Amino acid sequence: MSMDRPCPKCGSTEILGDVPVVSSVDRISSTPVVALAYRRPEARIFKEPVAHRLTARVCAACGLAELYVEDPKGLALAVKEAAAAAGADRPGDEDLR
Ligand SMILES: [Zn+2]
In this structure, are residues 32 and 18 in contact, taking their beta carbons and an 8 Å threshold? Predict the structure, then answer.
């Protein structure tokens, strides 16, 4: 994500990059917000979650925030694996994995 690109809403060039996006924070820890996919969404228990953190590109003038997945290729791979698994699975065999 380029820092050079101006804000698409207000045109400001004062942009904060790679701002962590968290759901909660205290003095010693924070909980990241993630983009989530499952490699085995049909499985009853072992759904094999794949989670990648979100970061924000924030305009310091107007506050517009764009969200970015840190590893979009990894997320896309998990989605493709889920689609492939759904095509290969027979009903009832998910518990054998
Ligand atoms: Zn702006």
Answer: no
pTM across the whole model: 0.76
Give 65 Cα–ligand 1 centroid separation in angstroms: 9
Q: How far apart are CA 11 and CA 9, in angstroms?
A: 6
pLDDT classification of 1: cutoffs 50, 70, 90: very low
CB distance 52 to 75 below 8 Å: yes
Cα of 73 vs centre of ligand 1, distance in Å, is: 28
Residue 14: partners with Cβ closer than 8 Å, 6 or more residues away = 59, 60, 61
Question: What residues does each domain of the chain span?
Answer: 15-90
Give me the mean pLDDT over the 5-31 stretch.
Answer: 96
